[in-house]
Amino acid sequence: AQTVTQSQPEMSVQEAETVTLSCTYDTSESNYYLFWYKQPPSRQMILVIRQEAYKQQNATENRFSVNFQKAAKSFSLKISDSQLGDTAMYFCAFLVNAGKSTFGDGTTLTVKP
Amino acid sequence: NAGVTQTPKFRILKIGQSMTLQCTQDMNHNYMYWYRQDPGMGLKLIYYSVGAGITDKGEVPNGYNVSRSTTEDFPLRLELAAPSQTSVYFCASSYSMGGNTEAFFGQGTRLTVV
User: Fold this and answer.
1) Does residue A98 register a pLDDT over 80?
2) Pairing label, strands A88-97, A107-112
3) Which of B44, B50, B108 lies closest to A98 in CB terms?
4) Measured between CA atoms, how close is B102 to chain A, in angstroms?
5) What percentage of chain A exceeds 70 in pLDDT?
């Protein structure tokens, strides 16, 4: 079975600064995908960034980037130039196939003005 | 584009009652999913479907049933509601199951069983 651990239940950052959210996972699978989702107070789940395990290059989407360390089973999310709209719950997720997906318990991020 | 639409948005059920959570998508996606999100926790997969007529259990299927008679619709049925089913339920769809395609989520249904 897969497990996903987000060790930081809550974090805060000043507007315009950089913050890193951590995620570790455990699996015996060799092919899988990793995701970060954002859930604002509206409850909508929004895909932030995804990483394919067989790709060594870290994914980047504008101000969001990941540090993927496959051997260490670590998948952290870096948010640069934090904005007030980044305030949300962030979930790390792991996907093998349609029937095997695991989400972490989330990190609540607050961006302070 | 409406995307993934869930109804109702909120519902209060009494113990032992039954209900169906509706989910429809207009993106012609083959894959559809039902998740539940308990307070302070991540999503857990209840059931999924890889196409019309094909469904399978996820991590937490007990107490639920699904059907997939059309590509667009994937209803979730609770037969005998229990307090442990108090949760927020999300429906999602994707073109394929791979991580190179995005899963689109509905707005969720907040269900309280009393």
Assistant:
1) no
2) antiparallel
3) B50
4) 7
5) 100
